[in-house]
Design goal:
The protein has 112 residues and is an alpha+beta fold. The chain contains three helices and three strands; from the N terminus they run αβααββ. Helix 2 crosses helix 3. The longest helix has 12 residues.
Length: 112
């Protein structure tokens, strides 16, 4: 028998903290939305969801559909997400809205 030999290796990723922060943001942060990109109603929905959760039955309001598009969640727009092959019905991730970062979760509840 031969004993397993473990050899540590390392590769430089960034030479400055600012560069590392940029890499992490690019890796972990999904949609980036400027605060003036959303209508007042879509902004209201997003802010309400930050403090609590928000949901609408299909067909969605124009403001909710606008928010789903901004969150890069177009597959949710047709109301048939459960029938779309390869599309996850629960999505988690991070977004940047204005200068703030938020965890986001899109999840289906009820229905078939």
């Amino acid at each position: 028998f031969h004993e397993t030999v473990y050899r540590p290796t390392a590769a430089a990723v960034a030479e400055r903290p600012e560069r590392m922060e940029a890499i992490l943001r690019t890796t972990f942060v999904g949609p980036r939305i400027e605060s003036d990109e959303l209508s007042a109603e879509a902004d209201r929905i997003l802010r309400r969801a930050v403090g609590d959760e928000y949901g609408e039955p299909y067909p969605y309001s124009d403001a909710y559909a606008e928010l789903l598009r901004a969150l890069d969640a177009r597959p949710y727009l047709d109301g048939g997400i459960r029938n779309d092959a390869g599309v996850l019905t629960d999505r988690k991730g991070m977004i940047r809205y204005g200068d703030d970062y938020y965890e986001r979760e899109l999840r289906l509840s009820g229905g078939d």
